[in-house]
Amino acid sequence: MNKVIFIGNLTRDPESGTTQSGVQYCRFSIAVNRRFSRDNETTADFFNITCWRGLAESCAKNLQKGRKVCVVGSLQTSQYTANDGSKRTSYDVIADEVEFLPSGAGRADGDNTQGTENNGYGSNSGGRNSGGLTPVDEDDLPF
């Protein structure tokens, strides 16, 4: 099974377009903070995300640099030859779902809405948490 889930912030505004066959895409990157750090310094990993069709349209319209998202998808690798002749590997996430999350202080335009988008259809859950998740106090966990 190839499935990844990341929560992070966009590092730049999304780039969108259509392929020659008319399929819409959207690309963006997110910074994901590591859970543990050395010397109390926050360390982040950066991931390139690609969305297709209706999900791409929704992400292009609603996302901007700094926005917090949850991305569910699969990891895709590709190999290429760099200009210097060396072989390189690229790791990209193909998004199946993107959930727009509220930031701690909200966005600059005051919109602090939340929605889930699904690959291919771009249907919004209307602010409802489709995953059925509820906040849990860590003190209530049995482990």
Verbal overview:
7% of the residues lie in helices and 44% in strands. With 143 residues, it is mainly beta. Strands 1-3-4-6-5 form a 5-stranded mixed beta barrel. A hairpin with a 5-residue loop joins strand 5 (68-81) and strand 6.
Provide a concise account of the structure shown.
This protein has one helix spanning 53-62, and strands at residues 4-10, 15-18, 24-33, 44-52, 68-81, 87-101, 115-118. With 143 residues, the protein is mainly beta.
List keywords for this structure.
mainly beta, 5-stranded mixed β-barrel, 44% strand, globular
Distance between the termini: 27 Å
Strand order of the largest sheet: 1-3-4-6-5
Low-confidence stretches: 106-114, 119-130
- What's the story with the biggest beta sheet? 5 strands, mixed, barrel
What is the overall number of helices? 1
Helices and strands in order, then pairings?
Layout: E1 4-10, E2 15-18, E3 24-33, E4 44-52, H1 53-62, E5 68-81, E6 87-101, E7 115-118
Parallel strand pairs: 4-6
Antiparallel strand pairs: 1-3, 1-5, 2-3, 3-4, 5-6, 6-7
